[in-house]
Amino acid sequence: MFEPPARVPLSAVEHTVSTPLHGNIRAVLFDLDGTLADTAPDLVAAVNKVRTDRGLPPGPYETLRLQASHGARGLIGSAFGVAPEDAAFASLRDAFLANYEAALCVKSHLFDGIPALLAALSERGMPWGIVTNKAARLTNPLVKLLGLADGAACVVSGDTTPHSKPHPAPLLYAAECIGIAPAQIVYVGDDLRDVQAGKAAGMATVAAAYGYCGDLLAPAQWQADAVVERAGAIAPLVMSTA
């Protein structure tokens, strides 16, 4: 049900396209890593510490950054060539998570344009929330450290519901929390799974091409309702219909 379309190299698509969103948009939900916040510096530092602790040189930042939205699975896979079914994965994952939890928000920061966007949504009376696949034990303190806790109408983590994205359950739970129908919500994310989850939940979707996005399928190929190259471009899309 949630299998992605055929993969297209990023180099095959030079431009992304945004189209106006239609309908009565009353709320906006955001992915966290790579959408609201640039958390890659701390995530990459955590996985590279696993490498250096084992006598290996740090992996290249730009390569590892592309996997930042894929959590431990993506970062461990890129840094060590190890898949979750491999025997070495669990110990590497545990070491990575311990490193990350100990230095959760050293260099992480909100993307340019996000503070102004969130302030504009609040002034407009449009609730916004966070739906991430990051575990709650990491999400909740990070959201506080980033200064997002007081403004968010809801924070849904990867273990809040029995399923994580691309399953629609976390988004449907968020819609229930804020009391707004999915058809009146926009979900913004920097990963194909975000668009798949949003569509499955019946929400409009915006692909954040300024985020991590991986290296296999260009955001323009995700079939989102709109694609933005910067966070500042989100406001006109969602507020024009409010």
For the sheet with most strands, the description reads: 6 strands, parallel
> Could you tell me how far the N terminus lies from the C terminus, measured between alpha carbons in angstroms?
31 Å
| Number of DSSP strand runs | 8
Radius of gyration, CA atoms, in whole angstroms? 17 Å
Share of β-strand residues: 5-15%
Q: Supply the helix-strand structural class.
A: alpha/beta
Shape: globular
Strands side by side in the biggest sheet: 5-4-1-6-7-8
Q: What is the residue-mean pLDDT, rounded to a whole number? A: 90
Keywords:
242 residues, alpha/beta, 8 strands
Structure, described:
The protein has 242 residues and is an alpha/beta fold. 37% of the residues lie in helices and 11% in strands. The protein has nine helices and eight strands. Strands 5-4-1-6-7-8 form a six-stranded parallel beta sheet, sandwiched between helices. A two-stranded antiparallel sheet has the order 2-3. Helix 1 crosses helix 3 and helix 1 packs across helix 4. The two termini are 31 Å apart. The N terminus is likely disordered.
